[in-house]
Design goal:
Radius of gyration: 16 Å
Strand content: 25-35%
Helix content: 25-40%
Order of helices and strands: EHEEHEEEEEHHE
Strand order of the largest sheet: 2-3-4-7-8
Largest sheet: 5 strands, antiparallel
Shape: globular
Number of helices: 4
Length: 196
């Protein structure tokens, strides 16, 4: 089932998410719905807060980036084959010189800005089978992970912008929170009532 994506301005996006246990109800169904929702919106990542759930789950599938000819064949293959579920994730280290990349977010449609992040992350998490992992990622995969990880920490990419940039996009953000935007995927705006 394709779920509505929560829009900028909803308090759930600013809340630090909670860990879950392996007996979380209908976890397989939730993950399947999250993947469907992400693909329907042409996203490369989606976090549970973006569908209104303040829990520490996010997914990443970087295969759309594999078409980018700026990457080497090896990088394209890595991106094409990277699809992962992160549950109860904790970034334990970020390293390297910060680099800018133009980021967007399914909860903040039509707003894209350069965000500075470190190129390498170490992250501990459990997968969909609750098997534990600690891995190091770099480059674009690390960036997507950092962006989605921020969601479960209650941080949006717009929080990382300079005060000048924030002032410049303030009106657009306000319009998004009021639902004054055209998007080609399902969204739920802060002033809308939840539909069961």
């Amino acid at each position: 089932m394709i779920l509505p994506i929560v829009a900028y301005g909803d308090p759930v996006l600013k809340k630090k998410a909670s860990d879950i246990t392996k007996d979380y109800p209908k976890l397989d169904e939730l993950l399947a719905n999250m993947f469907k929702t992400m693909y329907n919106a042409y996203g490369v990542g989606l976090a549970a807060p973006q569908i209104g759930l303040p829990i520490r789950i996010f997914l990443v599938d970087t295969s759309p980036f594999a078409e980018d000819e700026d990457f080497t064949e090896e990088e394209q293959n890595t991106l094409k084959n990277f699809k992962r579920v992160f549950i109860n994730a904790k970034i334990t280290n970020e390293e390297g010189d910060e680099w800018a990349f133009n980021e967007g977010c399914l909860s903040i449609p039509d707003v894209r800005e350069d965000v500075f992040r470190q190129p390498k992350v170490t992250i501990s998490y459990v997968d969909e089978n609750f098997e534990p992992h600690t891995e190091v990622f770099d480059g674009l995969i690390a960036r997507v992970i950092q962006h989605e990880y921020d969601h479960i920490e209650g941080v949006l990419f717009t929080d990382k912008l300079s005060s000048l940039k924030k002032r410049l996009i303030k009106g657009r953000l306000s319009n998004i929170s009021k639902g004054k935007i055209d998007v080609d995927y399902r969204m739920r705006f802060p002033n809308q009532k939840k539909r069961r």
